[in-house]
């Protein structure tokens, strides 16, 4: 089976008024940024174990330099990570247990609006991998 999911979080608010304690022009308050996530891959049942499905796919997630709606001022660390995304699902007793561990293959810190205005390229920190665990129940 093939799977695909995507989401985009729109935040039309420009800044939230929270101080960053930074002194560079345009970085004194926090930006309220958009975020995005795209996942896709293949899933395959493991016949000897009823209810078990293994998955492998890719994941692209990040924060854009500029929001689609509203302004993009304030401090943010825009960029993206592309990851391999292995995992599994196990369905039993009306529950679905899931686990996936995306590990970063590529990371790219983009220049923010204040970075461009100040003619610098800011810092960033990306996780090497994450652990995502979920439980859902059908009623």
Give the beta-strand count.
Answer: 9
Q: How many individual helices?
A: 1
Tell me the overall shape.
elongated
Percent in helix: under 10%
Rg of Cα set: 19 Å
The share of residues in extended strands comes to over 45%
Short summary:
This protein is mainly beta and 139 residues long. It has one helix at 113-118; strands at 2-9, 15-19, 29-31, 35-45, 52-63, 79-92, 95-100, 103-109, 132-137. The radius of gyration is 19 Å and the shape is elongated.
Describe this structure in words.
The protein has 139 residues and is mainly beta. Helices cover 4% and strands 52% of the residues. The chain has one helix and nine strands; from the N terminus they run E-E-E-E-E-E-E-E-H-E. The strands form two sheets. Strands 1, 4, 5, 6, 7, 8 and 9 form a seven-stranded antiparallel β-sheet that branches. Strands 2-3 form a two-stranded antiparallel ribbon. Strand 6 and strand 7 form a beta hairpin. The radius of gyration is 19 Å and the shape is elongated. The mean pLDDT is 95.
Show the helix and strand layout.
Blueprint lengths: L1 E8 L5 E5 L9 E3 L3 E11 L6 E12 L15 E14 L2 E6 L2 E7 L3 H6 L13 E6 L2
Antiparallel strand pairs: 1-4, 2-3, 4-5, 5-6, 6-7, 6-8, 7-9
Features:
single chain; 139 residues; mainly beta; seven-stranded antiparallel sheet; two-stranded antiparallel sheet; 52% strand
